[in-house]
Structure formats: structure tokens, C-alpha cells
Amino acid sequence: MRVLIVYYSRSGHTARLAEVLASEMSQRGHEVVIEAIQVERSWNKWFLPIPLLPLLPFLPLYLLSSSFRRFWHWVYFQPEQAISPLANPDVSGFDLVLLGTPKWLYISYPVVRWLKEVRGLAGKRVATFATFCGPPLKVFEIEMLFEPLEARLKSLGATPSSRLAVPSDFHEYFFRNEMRNLFRWISLRHFGCLLENFTMEGQAGKAEIKRFCDETF
Ligand SMILES: Cc1cc2nc3c(=O)[nH]c(=O)nc-3n(C[C@H](O)[C@H](O)[C@H](O)COP(=O)(O)O)c2cc1C
Predict the structure, then answer these.
(1) How far is the CA of 43 from the centre of ligand 1 (A)?
(2) Could you tell me if 141 and 112 are in contact, meaning their C-beta atoms sit under 8 angstroms apart?
(3) How far does the centroid of ligand 1 lie from the alpha carbon of residue 131, in Å?
(4) Which of 44, 70, 106, 128 is 20 to 30 A from 143 (CA-CA)?
């Protein structure tokens, strides 16, 4: 198979996951082309979350109600960020596309722009992969990112296939790793195990990567 792995990564974690997937696919005999989406201008980290704040007052409702989630995914404001010209602006020559993004509450802004600029997605099988700081919480981490991402893929005529979600145990906010520490605590409370276990280096993370590769190619 001829495979395109295309991803955005601001701080290197999604890039590392893309490299792991590329090496796994090459070992399985596939031809792999890898492309990092580049932003035209990097945004200040304190500016990035501002457009995401409207969810905060509704977060409890979002977490509790699946019908509210469906509504929210339909109406929420998804920011975009300008990207540099693509090395592979038309993906019609590939048998499979792997699309990677960090979770920025929802889809990362440069990946949204990629979805608008790329051509040839119609009829294409697209598997998605992502990194985020926290443990793989079904609603807050997985659904909040993959549901809107797959909806956009479908609207472009692509067929979303498997999903891979791998925590990075890294968060840019706030001053003394407060967000990372919160997610570490949630991992212990919710899953009864260390967040490290779910990362690329952890046992559960490695198993998840293997499952994704077996399912996808
Ligand atoms: C604007 C913004 C929003 C984020 N939202 C989340 C989030 O909702 N959940 C989470 O676990 N991590 C969140 N993160 C952390 C990143 O998803 C995480 O650090 C990711 O692994 C970074 O990937 P990268 O190194 O490829 O850029 C957010 C980071 C940014 C910059």
C-alpha cells in the first residue's frame, strides 16, 4: 500500500507518534510518505485557548449529556490557523491516509485548515491518530476530538477508519505543570494507574499502537 502520514505537531509529541507509525508501516512492507503540516506563524500559547473558552460553563452538561454533545459538536466554533503550502496538496494517489493531530480541546487549528486545503479525500480511507496530555477518557479526550474530526472527514467524502489516541503526559499550561498534574491525578482516580502507562513508552500505550497498526494495515 502507498500510505501518506500527515500530521501537525506543535511540541513534538504527535510527530514522535507519526515516526513510530511510519517505521511500523515500513517494516510491514508499505511505502510511506510522511508530511508535517507547518504553520505560517506560530501563535503565542496564551492566545491559543481563548477561542476554546465558551465550552467551560457548559462542560458539566457536555460530559453528562450525549444529546448536548451532539448539539455542541454541531454548533461549536472551531478555530483554524494558516498553514504553509503543502508538499502533498492532492492525496488521491495514496491508498490510505493517516491524519495526526494534538488535541486542542477539539481538533488542532492547523489540521482544520489542512482539511480545507487538501484535495482528493473523497473515497479515501483515513485513519486518525492523536496525542493529548490526559489519560484516554472516553468522552473528554476521545469523543471530543475524534467525533468532530471524523464528521469533517465524512463531509469531504472520506471514510474514517481506526482511531489511535495516545497520551503524551505533556501540557503547556499553566506555570508549574498544573494541567499535567491534574491529568495524572485523574488517571490514578479514574483508571487506577499511572498516566505514564498510557503513553508511547508505557505498556498500555504500546498495546494501543499495535492494535491500531493491526486494524489499519
Ligand atoms: C490550546 C491547547 C488545548 C489543549 N487541550 C487539551 C485537552 O483538551 N486535553 C488534553 O489532554 N490535552 C490538551 N492539550 C495538550 C496537548 O494536546 C498535548 O500536549 C499534546 O500531546 C501536544 O502535542 P504536540 O507535542 O504534537 O503538539 C492542549 C494543548 C493546547 C496547546
Answers:
(1) 14
(2) no
(3) 7
(4) 44
CA-closest residue to ligand 1 atom 18: 132
Distance of CA 124 from the midpoint of ligand 1 (Å): 27
pLDDT in tens, the chain (217 residues): 999 999 999 999 999 999 999 999 999 999 999 999 999 999 999 999 999 999 999 999 999 999 999 999 999 999 999 999 999 999 999 999 999 999 999 999 999 999 999 999 999 999 999 999 999 999 999 999 999 999 999 999 999 999 999 999 999 998 889 999 999 999 999 999 999 999 999 999 999 999 999 999 8
Residues 169 and 133: beta-carbon distance below 8 Å: yes
pTM for the structure as a whole? 0.97
The CATH T-level fold of domain 2-216 is: Rossmann fold (3.40.50)
Ligand 1 pocket member 10 (CB < 6 A): yes
Length of the chain: 217
All 3 cell numbers of residue 166? 495516545
**Cα distance between residue 195 and residue 187, in whole Å:** 6
